[in-house]
Amino acid sequence: MRIVLAATLIAALAPTPATAIADACPPAPAGHAHCLAKVRAAGHDGYGPADLRSAYNLPATGGADQTVAVVDAGDDPNAEADLAVYRSAYGLPACTIANGCFRKVNQRGSADPLPDDQGWAIEIALDIQMVSAACPSCRVLLVEADDASFANLATAVNTAVRLGATEVSNSYGAPEQNGMQDFQAAYGHPGVAVLASSGDEGYGIPSVPAVFPTVVAVGGTSLRRAGNGWT
């Protein structure tokens, strides 16, 4: 049975006062997406891979035939190093460029040159680590768009699919607005699960690209232990 996974799907926050959370990425101008990662000041140690697999009833094995692509804006120069620390800390097998598990490319599919830092490093680190938590055997493909414009992000999604992604995670969005339909085709690839965040703030203005009919829209959730299970 195929495992459909994406960082967008499983990155859940434990409940905490709103004052303890801040946006991880800078504000986005018109025509650009905003990453949806949050920074928690204090109050929770977070959940590890075993917690997340338990909460979402994910298998402990499988996924070696899959490549989960993470599309983000700009370069995180420490992505591979931080991923190595995360996986080592939780006893997960190494996932590196050298062993073929991890790959980082620009929106054209080349490892060089990579784009400038766009302030999305925390989002990038979160995304690739959550893929690792959910599916330690999956290959991780990080596609870095030149910036957070929807034109460049759409190009990055198409590149991810061209390079063999079986799932594409997009943890970003912007309020639905005129002109966004021009990028819809990039988020529809038969046979590839394309997921996008629908936001962390509850019901409101529909978010692009989550609003597109070919996308699995994943809502912001809270996750807490409840007895021997989860809620």
TrEMBL record:
Keyword NAD: no
GO molecular function: serine-type endopeptidase activity; tripeptidyl-peptidase activity
Top-level division of the source organism's lineage: Bacteria
Keyword hit for Protease: yes
Range of residues in the leader sequence: 1-20
InterPro entries: Peptidase_S8/S53_dom_sf (IPR036852), Tripeptidyl-peptidase_I (IPR050819)
GO terms under biological process: proteolysis
Keywords: Hydrolase, Protease, Signal
Protein's name according to its UniProt entry: Subtilase family serine protease
Organism of provenance: Kutzneria kofuensis
Lineage, uppermost ranks: Bacteria, Bacillati, Actinomycetota, Actinomycetes, Pseudonocardiales
